[in-house]
Amino acid sequence: MCPQDPIQELRDGQFESACRTPHEARVTVVPGIHQAGGYFDIQWWTNGDYKYHYREKGLEFRFGREADNVDTSNPVRHFHPPSDLSNHLPSCIEGELPPELVTIAVGTTWFAAVKDSEPGRLNDQNNLP
Fold first, then answer.
1. Looking at residue 20, what is its pLDDT?
2. In sequence order, what are the beta bridge partners of 64?
3. Do the domain assignments include residue 63?
4. CA nearest to 23, candidates 49, 8, 43, 3
5. Cβ-based neighbours of 61, under 8 Å, separated by 6 or more
6. Residue 9 falls within a domain, yes or no?
7. In the chain, N or C: fewer CB atoms in 10 Å?
8. Do residues 55 and 34 touch, judged by C-beta distance below 8 A?
């Protein structure tokens, strides 16, 4: 059992928040790149880090931002390609963007790959979003 956060006063009354645990959004998309459909698991952290992990049968990739990479040889904003998820390539999604714009950029790269049935299109976009 976790401790409760204090009651917060809001404009329309009180709000009592629940225990804080990591959360993830799952977004199902149809069609997929090679299959009938797939899904994204999406996570954002308060420091601006994020993960957009796409999966469908036989294919997965990930766009991410990890501030901890600043002291490593891996880029902070990176792409894990379908051919090698352990690889950290520089991401075509550049700059410090809010969640809405990163989501549009990831969707743009995904749609280009769907349209051409070509995962190689995932990280080759320019001027995103």
1. 52
2. 51, 78
3. yes
4. 43
5. 53, 54, 79, 80, 81, 82, 85, 119, 122
6. no
7. N
8. no
Residue with tokens 């059992």: 1
Q: What is the pLDDT of residues 43-89, one digit of tens each?
A: 998 888 999 999 999 999 999 999 988 889 999 999 999 989 999 99
Containing structural domain, residue 49: 21-121
107 located within any domain: yes
Q: What is the mean pLDDT of the chain?
A: 84
pTM of this prediction?
A: 0.79
Residues forming a β-bridge with 39: 28, 55
Judge whether 16 lies within some domain.
no
Those residues whose C-beta lies under 8 Å from the C-beta of residue 111, and which sit 6 or more positions away, are none
Residues 83-121: tens digit of each pLDDT: 899 999 999 998 888 889 999 999 999 999 999 999 999
Q: How many domains does the chain have?
A: 1
Beta bridge partners of 23: none
Helix boundaries (H) for 1-129 = 99-116
